[in-house]
Amino acid sequence: MEKILVTGGRGLVGAAINKIVGSDSSYHFTNSSETDLYEYKSCRELFQKYQPTKVIHLAANVGGLFKNMNQKVDMLEKNIIINYNVIKCSHEFGVKKFIGCLSTCIFPDETVYPINEDTLHNGPPHSSNYAYAYAKRMLEIQCRLYREQYGDNFMCIIPTNIYGPHDNFNLNDSHVIPGLIHKCYLAKKEEKDFLVFGTGRPLRQFIYSDDLAKFIIWLLDNLEYNESLIVSPDPAEETSIGKIAELIANEFNYLDKLRYDTSKSDGQYRKTADNSKLKKMYGDLDLTNIEDGIKKTVKWFKNNYNTCRK
Ligand code: NAP
Ligand code: GFB
Q: Which residues have any ligand 1 atom within 6 Å of their CB?
């Protein structure tokens, strides 16, 4: 009998997976109110209770550029602790498939673009998020060591920037899309400028959470595959922050009040990722385009304003 444990189960990605498989009783979606994964004892009790055969490990201390710049110690320590606990328990309880989550932002800043899965450790990450980046790189190392020493089927996916319903819309800690959606909503309500940080020039590849969820579920059944895998749109789908800001402003009919605060950091200019390994395995990715994804996310935010994370 399969038992699939999803850590971070009520977050952006966890909620997207739940939407697809929620009625399937073989899945258990855990969260911090059920188990604090910083505590090894609590983590072990969770595994003891559910005896998972597969694990989708999403739980992490997550945030956008400004949270990463301002909370480096937490971003390193909390992520290292969570990952250590979950992987150690996954081995102890004989989990036969483990999928952890890295990010395209943890790759070397000075590298040949587009990045691919083999370049992860070829240089230091960008200064803005090196704490989170090194914690995530240790996740990849830990999975690799368990594969080499014990033959465990532990792997990592490497998503690019993710967005969609159930994201964290907090103005200080969030990623750019939820942050700008919340900002534009408030600016229009208070008849103020819609202030976008930085120059708007940096480039990003964005993947809608429902699309990422589809690939994670597909990978779960692929027991043989256990190497790191980039999950992103094509490099040509790179979008500027300025274009994102305009798409969001248009959803609120507020383009004329869009302004830039260039005193704020742009962070990494680009982190273009090569998704050819995924395309070779999966075929047509059939991704949600950025216009539709933002439209759906803005609609969800407006409909869930009172209860969403902000
Ligand atoms: P998220 O919405 O913040 O969800 C992360 C979840 O982790 C939260 O829901 C939280 O649960 C849980 N968590 C945090 N600390 C915990 C603890 N001590 N014990 C138990 N649970 C804890 O993040 P996400 O965007 O879904 O990210 C999922 C994964 O993708 C993460 O590993 C992240 O690093 C990775 N990733 C994200 C992005 C992105 O752009 N969002 C890009 C690349 C990779 P509660 O809600 O119950 O507190
Ligand atoms: O999603 P984001 O915060 O993180 O995007 P990164 C930052 C980019 O959006 C910068 C611009 O160019 C910012 O100047 N931006 C403009 C804003 N206005 C805002 C705003 O109101 N909020 C935010 N957050 N950005 C993260 C990594 O990098 O990527 C994390 O730091 C994580 O570790 C994530 O991996 C996926 O894409 O720059």
A: 8, 10-14, 31-33, 35-38, 58-62, 82, 101, 103, 159, 161-162, 168, 175
The pLDDT, as a whole number, for residue 223 is 77
pLDDT at 22: 82
Q: How confident is the model at residue 225 (pLDDT cuts 50, 70, 90)?
A: confident
pLDDT tens for 70-119 read 999 999 999 999 999 999 999 999 999 999 999 999 999 999 999 999 99
Closest-lying ligand 2 atom to the alpha carbon of residue 201: 12
Shortest-distance atom of ligand 1 to CA 104: 43
Choose, from 132, 146, 163, 185, the residue flagged as catalytic: 132
Residue 132 annotated in active site: yes
User: Ligand 1 center to residue 18 CA distance, Å?
Assistant: 14
As a whole number of angstroms, the distance between CA 164 and CA 162 comes to: 7
**Ligand that comes closest to the CA of residue 159:** 1
**Percent of the chain having pLDDT more than 90?**
97
